[in-house]
Amino acid sequence: MAKVYTGKVAIPGDKVEEYFKLVEEAEKKREPFRRQLVQLNEEFYEYLLEKYTERTARNHSTIIDLFIDFTCRQTDVESIEEITRGMVNTHFKKWWKRKVWDSTTPDQLRVALKKFFAFLATEKGIVNEKAMKGLR
Fold first, then answer.
1. Which of helix, strand or coil describes residue 84?
2. Which of 21, 75, 84, 111 is 20 to 30 A from 95 in CA distance terms?
């Protein structure tokens, strides 16, 4: 089952270099997944431009950009299908509240994520029922 990394990590001073090396290796391993998500977000932005104003499309796309960062740095998922209900709902909202300073409401986060996962299902054939249930 996919995990969300929360909390603090204590790294002994003599292990810092080893820790940074492991982080770098993990980022290299996840780079293809990140590139896939970024590409899908670019397509999502173009899709939104057909229906909404540029401002709305940009707002939704920016939220998804940060969701990609959250997913790639704070979880161990390696595919869209592994993203859980709690990741798109509780964990992402808590992460957003701690890390992002803006006036975006939890409802705006939910709407952007819901539109993104609906786009994936209808336009790309990538269905994640668990995530969609968390966004209702």
1. coil
2. 21
- Which phi-psi region, left, alpha or beta, contains residue 53 (left: φ > 0; alpha: ψ -120 to 50)? beta
Residues 85 and 26: their CA atoms lie apart, in Å, by: 24
Select from 93, 90, 100 the least CA-distant residue to 130: 90
pLDDT per position as a tens digit, 75-100:
888 899 999 999 998 999 999 999 99
Write out pLDDT tens, residues 37-69. 999 999 999 999 999 999 999 999 999 999 999
φ and ψ at residue 8, rounded to 5 degrees: -105, 150
**CA-to-CA distance for 69 and 118, rounded, in angstroms?**
20
Distances from the Cα of 35 to the Cα of 28, 39, 86, angstroms: 11, 6, 23
Closest C-alpha to 108, from 100, 71, 18: 100
> Which residue ranges make up each domain of the chain?
14-134
Q: Cα–Cα–Cα angle for 21, 24, 41, nearest 5°?
A: 170
Contact present, 48 and 100 (Cβ < 8 Å): no
